[in-house]
């Protein structure tokens, strides 16, 4: 009884918090986070990214850093992050009266008092990355207070502000534009790039999908499309679902954006309705099931599957009939209407008639060993072992593995130590990591420097990592594809952007290039005259920077800076150079 009361109380509090948050979602109650910019955007909420949805909006800062960032409402700073990856420098502000938390990411610096605390904490811990949780009364803010300055830190490829609003109780991200919190001038409906039909069958207990059948479209007016050619369109298979390739644009910018909603009706009956209103972060990888993954991997647009896979959540869909599947027969003509809507509520509509009896092209099935997604799967084939945990797949499928004989991309800095294997198809998404073990010939001297390599969707060699025991290496893989063992013995390269003995008295920083050939930078540290100093690493710009510290100024004269960097394959580099301050 006590447990039941506790559960009901928690549920009630959650509902109250959610209701309060929903009532507070008004642009009139929130200030704009960047008062000094033109209010142009480079990305919107819920866009399909590799293995995740985009959790906020990206606001352009006119191509420069240093624009004032303000608190959108009264509250307090709850978290301060300063890391080389992810959001880089970021602030989290809780708004207790509204039940929300706002997030400001990729900053170049915080306001002065926070910067001083972060610098002191980095010196105290001798760490370059800091993540601090703050007490409620430690850093109070009023609406419009400057809390930091826009930048390009972390995994950012240009100056901008990544901005989010979340429900504090659940950390559920919210769609700021569709909710009307951020208002964008936009009257352009989404552009339909392509419509496809995927026929579905079952073999040995697992669904099989045909190759996409492209349906020709004709644009009759802005936002209006009909099927081109003969009507009705003949589709293959007895049943299947549609796939929609589409792009959205906003006024004043060249960037591509994601859509908010895609819905489908068959014979005036709703069968599918996808909406990107928000999600919690444990849901973000489900983007691989919302999208038609084989095409989304290389697309610059969004490719949405108008069906729900067995392992996908229902949360993204406000309407589903037969999980979005459409039944076909040679003699039955069905009327289909598909609507795509952006977050500013501009619509594009496709209308067509379809029937069955078309040709079906199914991919070749190399193996009939079934992987039941609800069970743990383990198999050994020659020198490889694959373990797939239960529910790691979005649907059951068939195992597929082979030795790859065609040439891989060449990299003279790597030593190949095993054959190359294709494990499953790169077109099959993984929701949870699988375990891969490869046996090869690994000399003892190379074991500390070995890793499993793979080929990225863009065709480049990338590092998976792994733990080497004897001549076998085991790694967690988040994608299927081609894998092999390599040894990397090349140390990172550190190069200064100033001369030996340079006069830096009128400079604010020391900048170095830090490049790595394969596995990524694991650690880096710096010392000036033997004392530890904080460094800023930018993996996107391949730079390592020391900013002269006003709180700990260097004495006049000559100084020696010494840098160390280590990659993820155990290769360590050092560098030293003198300068005058």
- The number of helical segments is 4
How many β-strands, per DSSP?
A: 50
- Shape descriptor reads globular
* Share of helix, binned: under 10%
Poorly predicted parts: 1-24
Averaged pLDDT: 92
Radius of gyration: 27 Å
The description of the largest β-sheet is: 10 strands, antiparallel
Secondary structural class: mainly beta
> Oligomerization state of this entry?
single chain
Terminal-residue CA separation: 71 Å
Strand fraction equals: over 45%
Write up what this structure looks like.
This protein has four helices and 50 strands. It is globular. By secondary structure, it is mainly beta.
Write the layout of secondary structure elements.
Layout: H1 2-24, E1 41-43, E2 48-49, E3 52-53, E4 57-60, E5 68-70, E6 75-82, E7 89-95, E8 100-110, H2 112-125, E9 130-133, E10 140-141, E11 146-150, E12 160-167, E13 173-174, E14 191-203, E15 206-209, E16 213-215, E17 217-221, E18 224-227, E19 233-236, E20 239-247, E21 261-266, E22 269-275, E23 278-279, H3 287-290, H4 293-296, E24 302-305, E25 317-320, E26 326-327, E27 334-341, E28 347-358, E29 370-371, E30 377-381, E31 384-388, E32 397-398, E33 401-404, E34 414-416, E35 420-423, E36 429-439, E37 450-455, E38 461-465, E39 467-469, E40 472-479, E41 481-488, E42 493-496, E43 502-503, E44 509-515, E45 521-528, E46 531-533, E47 536-538, E48 543-547, E49 558-567, E50 572-580
Parallel strand pairs: 18-28, 19-28, 43-50
Antiparallel strand pairs: 1-4, 2-3, 4-12, 5-11, 6-7, 6-9, 6-10, 7-8, 8-11, 8-12, 13-23, 14-15, 14-16, 14-20, 17-18, 20-24, 20-26, 21-22, 21-27, 22-25, 27-28, 29-32, 30-31, 31-36, 33-35, 34-41, 35-41, 36-40, 37-38, 37-41, 39-40, 42-44, 44-48, 45-46, 45-49, 47-48, 49-50
């Amino acid at each position: 009884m006590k447990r039941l009361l506790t559960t009901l109380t928690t549920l009630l509090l959650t509902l109250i918090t959610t209701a309060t948050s929903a009532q507070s979602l008004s642009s009139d109650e929130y200030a704009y986070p960047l008062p000094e910019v033109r209010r142009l955007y480079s990305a919107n909420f819920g866009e399909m990214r590799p293995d995740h949805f985009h959790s906020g909006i990206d606001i352009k800062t006119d191509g420069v850093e240093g624009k004032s960032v303000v608190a959108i409402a009264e509250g307090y700073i709850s978290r301060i992050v300063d890391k080389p990856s992810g959001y880089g420098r970021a602030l989290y502000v809780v708004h207790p009266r509204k039940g929300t938390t706002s997030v400001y990411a990729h900053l170049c610096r915080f306001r002065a008092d926070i910067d001083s605390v972060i610098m002191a904490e980095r010196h105290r811990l001798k760490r370059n990355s800091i993540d601090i949780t703050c007490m409620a009364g430690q850093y109070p803010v009023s609406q419009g207070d400057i809390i930091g300055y826009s930048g390009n830190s972390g995994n950012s490829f240009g100056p901008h502000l990544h901005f989010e609003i979340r429900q504090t109780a659940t950390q559920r991200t919210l769609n700021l534009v569709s909710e009307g919190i951020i208002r964008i001038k936009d009257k352009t409906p989404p552009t339909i790039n392509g419509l496809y039909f995927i026929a579905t069958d079952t073999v040995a207990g697992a669904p099989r999908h045909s190759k996409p059948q492209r349906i020709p479209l004709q644009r009759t007016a802005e936002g209006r499309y009909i099927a081109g050619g003969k009507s009705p369109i003949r589709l293959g298979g007895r049943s299947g679902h549609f796939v929609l390739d589409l792009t959205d644009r906003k006024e004043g910018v060249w960037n591509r954006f994601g859509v908010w909603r895609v819905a489908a009706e068959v014979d005036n009956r709703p069968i599918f309705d996808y909406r990107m209103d928000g999600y919690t972060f444990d849901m973000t990888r489900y983007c691989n099931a919302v999208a038609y993954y084989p095409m989304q991997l290389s697309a610059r647009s969004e490719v949405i599957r108008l069906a729900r896979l067995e392992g996908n959540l229902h949360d993204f869909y406000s309407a589903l009939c037969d999980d979005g599947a459409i039944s076909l027969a040679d003699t039955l003509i069905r009327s289909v209407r598909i609507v795509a809507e952006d977050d500013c509520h501009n619509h594009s509509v496709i209308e067509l008639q379809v029937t069955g009896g078309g040709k079906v092209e199914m991919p070749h099935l190399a193996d009939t060993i079934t992987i039941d997604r609800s069970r743990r799967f383990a198999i050994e084939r020659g020198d490889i072992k694959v373990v797939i945990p239960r529910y790691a797949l979005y649907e059951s499928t068939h195992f597929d593995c082979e030795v790859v004989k065609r040439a891989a991309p060449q990299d003279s800095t790597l030593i190949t130590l095993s054959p190359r294997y294709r494990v499953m198809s790169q077109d099959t998404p993984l929701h949870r990591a699988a375990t891969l073990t490869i046996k090869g010939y690994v000399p003892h001297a190379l074991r500390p420097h070995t890793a499993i390599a793979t080929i990225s969707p863009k065709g480049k060699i990338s590092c998976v990592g792994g733990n080497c025991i004897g001549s076998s290496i085991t790694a967690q893989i988040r994608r299927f594809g081609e894998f092999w063992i390599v040894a990397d013995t090349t140390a990172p390269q550190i190069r200064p952007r100033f001369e030996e003995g340079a006069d830096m008295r009128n400079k604010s920083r020391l900048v170095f290039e830090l490049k790595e050939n394969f596995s990524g930078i694991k650690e880096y540290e710096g010392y000036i005259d033997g004392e530890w100093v904080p460094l800023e690493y930018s993996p996107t710009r391949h730079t390592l920077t020391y900013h002269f510290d006003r709180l700990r100024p260097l004495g006049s004269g000559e100084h020696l800076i010494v840098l160390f960097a280590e990659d993820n394959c155990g290769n360590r580099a050092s560098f030293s150079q003198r300068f005058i301050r």
